Amino acid sequence: MKNKIKLYNRLETLKKKNIVQDQYQANLILKEITKTDVLLEKIKMILHDNFVENKDKYLSAAMFKNKSNLISTLNNQKYVAENKKEFLEGQKKIFDLNIAKNTNDKKLVNKKYKERLNEFREELENKNHINYKKK
């Protein structure tokens, strides 16, 4: 009986450790999502500034070519950042589900641990006629 109690106690500790690790990973992913959002906003701002028409100035062919190369590069970077954000959000959902599953498992293990502990105390009380404090 003591071995089962120790086993449940250890299992609960392992579940806590898994929860902490998943929370750490989820927080890292959330930071990366935030960085990606900031990058997307900067790219959108630069694209918007380059699309604004300047009626006072005439563009030379070289300036037009440089501006179009810049816009196409920024559009490609924007698509990459959007795809990265979608991927990270999917990974965050997976970690959130793991956290919820491990939390539920930890509660079940804790319940079993308390049940076994109460059974063990009752056995000792019956054998030795000793009363333990119940938590």
Number of strands: 0
Question: Which sequence of SSEs, written as H and E, runs from N to C?
Answer: HH
Distance N terminus to C terminus? 19 Å
Mean pLDDT: 85
Q: Which class of secondary structure composition applies to the elements?
A: mainly alpha
How big a fraction of the residues is strand? Answer: under 5%
Envelope shape: rod-shaped
Rg calc: 29 Å
Helix percent band:
over 70%
Question: Tell me about the biggest sheet?
Answer: none
Q: What are the low-pLDDT stretches, counting only 5+ consecutive residues below 50?
A: none
Number of helices: 2
Task: Write the topology of this structure.
Layout: H1 2-51, H2 61-128
Notes on the protein architecture:
This protein has 135 residues and is mostly helical. The protein has helices spanning 2-51, 61-128. Helix content is 87%, strand content 0%. It is built from 2 helices and no strands. The model has no long low-confidence stretch (mean pLDDT 85).
Q: Which features would summarize this protein structure in a list?
A:
135 residues, 87% helix, rod-shaped
Gist of the model:
By secondary structure, this protein is mostly helical.
